[in-house]
Design a protein that fits this description.
eight-stranded parallel β-barrel
Length: 392
């Protein structure tokens, strides 16, 4: 597997030299400064690629994460033809610069969602956490979303009510900031009023309509991707459950089967995220990796520990509910099949996802989940696991 690293570009506090020190050779990045729905100019892509290659550190831009899907494409509202044309042109510009793996997601409105960004661990380290009680409290008592209480267990609602009874304005603002932090590379966050207005666009929206939007997107872009030699790979929902009244449609093996069946092309594939899928059905993740191995173009490897009620916390990469050894074994076996078939792209890029903040991470800024030392530890553990399995 190709060891890779998510890098947020020139504004990232982690330097390319530090990335090289981790041992990674593949770079996973995006042009976050370009608004959703607009074309990524070839010149901007070339400049980012030159910045990475020009550092002389043996790094190569292998994966785009992400080329965002405009919200109107998900809702099916307005003039969609220009948005599809822009997406296809961005793919063409990426292919022209030699970047051929494109990760994207189809989560409405938000990206990954957490309620806590710095849960204390042993020795002062910190981890990310999704707390169903706090999420319920935000939805029911801060956002005031109708019918939100029906989405949570009665015990969770009762605990959420207790939280809300003691939360002051600072606690609510901190919770909102944490929930908004999962928009990687996006520096504009929503207020509660803005979030209410945006959610109004999705009132009455269900899985059927969102699936229709995804099917329309795939029909519009997959043929172009195939012609360009691009590998699109959808990222699972995180968390794998409806939140804020928004449907999620990439949360299980059944969802993935539907998506890959909707576009029977190697150009339409999967980003295997062991943590996202593991927050819902951890025991199923190795089977998902084996079932869809031929369509996995990219992997995020991290681990979680779940709790009753839907809460979960990010754990050490090899120590959680997901059998990471079985997942990595499935990826290595697929690489073997690809190599035997003579494919030049036999090796699958992966990156260590969402590391804890440890050591010097605690005194330097970083995007939530994207600390240097925590991810470097995860990469080292995954490297050792992969090499041990390969040698067995």
């Amino acid at each position: 597997m190709i060891e890779s690293w998510r890098w947020f570009g020139p504004l990232d506090d982690i330097t390319l030299a530090e990335v090289a020190q981790t041992g990674a050779t593949g770079i996973v990045t995006a042009l976050h400064e370009i608004p959703y729905g607009e074309v990524w100019p070839r010149e901007a892509i070339a400049a980012r690629r030159a910045l990475i290659a020009g550092a002389g550190l043996g790094l190569d831009w292998l994966v785009v994460e992400s080329l965002p899907v405009a919200e109107a494409i998900k809702t099916g509202e307005g003039a969609l033809a220009p948005l599809f044309a822009n997406y296809r042109q961005s793919l063409a510009n990426l292919a022209a610069e030699g970047v051929r793996i494109v990760c994207y997601n189809f989560m409405p409105l938000l990206d990954w969602t957490r309620t806590d960004l710095a849960v204390p661990l042993r020795g002062g380290a910190t981890a990310l956490r999704f707390d169903a009680v706090r999420m319920a409290a935000f939805e029911i008592f801060r956002l005031g979303r109708e019918a939100a209480a029906a989405d949570y267990a009665p015990a969770t609602v009762a605990a959420a009510r207790a939280f809300a009874a003691t939360a002051d304005e600072a606690a609510w603002e901190g919770l909102l900031a944490n929930i908004m932090a999962g928009l990687p590379g996006v520096y504009r966050r929503y207020t509660v009023a803005e979030l209410r207005a945006l959610l109004a666009r999705y009132r009455g929206f269900d899985r059927v309509r969102l699936r229709a939007g995804l099917a329309r997107f795939l029909a519009e872009v997959v043929p172009a991707a195939a012609d360009l030699g691009i590998r699109l790979c959808i990222h699972p929902d995180d968390p794998p459950r409806d939140i804020l009244g928004l449907p999620r449609i990439v949360s299980s093996g059944e969802d993935i089967a539907w998506i890959l069946g909707a576009a029977e092309s190697p150009a339409s594939g999967l980003t295997l995220c062991s943590g996202s899928l593991g927050a819902g059905q951890p025991a199923a993740v190795p089977a998902i990796a084996r079932r869809f191995a031929a369509r996995i173009h990219f992997a995020h490897l991290r681990n979680v520990r779940g709790e009753t009620g839907g809460s979960f916390q990010e754990s050490d990469h090899l120590d959680g509910d997901v059998d990471m050894a079985a997942v990595v074994r499935a990826l290595l076996e697929e690489e073997g099949r690809r190599a035997a078939a003579g494919r030049e792209d036999a090796r699958i890029p992966f990156r260590p996802d969402h590391g804890h903040r440890i050591g010097a991470d605690l005194t330097r800024p970083s995007h939530p989940g994207y600390s240097l030392n925590g991810r470097m530890r995860g990469l080292a553990e995954l490297r050792g696991l992969a090499r041990g399995l390969a040698a067995a």
